Amino acid sequence: MIIAPLMLSIRCLAFSALAGDESSFRKAIETIFVGTVLSIAFAWLIGMVVSLPSFGSEILSRSQPTLIDLGIAVAAGAISGLTKVEPRISSSLAGTAIAVALMPPLYVVGLGLSPS
To answer: Taking the alpha carbons of 12, 13, 19, 23 in that order, is the dihedral positive or negative?
Structure first.
């Protein structure tokens, strides 16, 4: 999750929307869709192999998001944008922020779809 597999696609989506570049926008949408489906599929596959008898508090808390979770997602997006315009801030910080906000919920969806 730390490598933030969807971060570049999300940035491309935002910048192509601002620039009005339709082909890049379509390509970014496709990439985000494929990345999301692959993330859920891998989590589902891991859930099938491991077959957890019950989910822990980390997984259960992600299935009932609160306003705090929304705040984390908004902060992660702001950090990602800030690292793009401020060269002194490491881009790995943006990757970590996006990974923390986006990838765990996708994995929870995949684990939830796998039979227990």
So the answer is: positive
- Band the pLDDT of 41: cuts 50, 70, 90: very high
d(CA 94, CA 33): 20
Closest CA to 108 of 35, 32, 56: 56
* DSSP letter (8 states) at residue 66: -
The distance from CA 27 to its chain's CA centroid, rounded to whole angstroms, is: 17
The reported pLDDT for the residue numbered 63 is 75
Q: How far is Cα 115 from Cα 99, in angstroms, rounded to an integer?
A: 25
Above 70 in pLDDT, residue 53?
A: yes
Distance separating alpha carbons of residues 54 and 65, to the nearest angstrom: 19
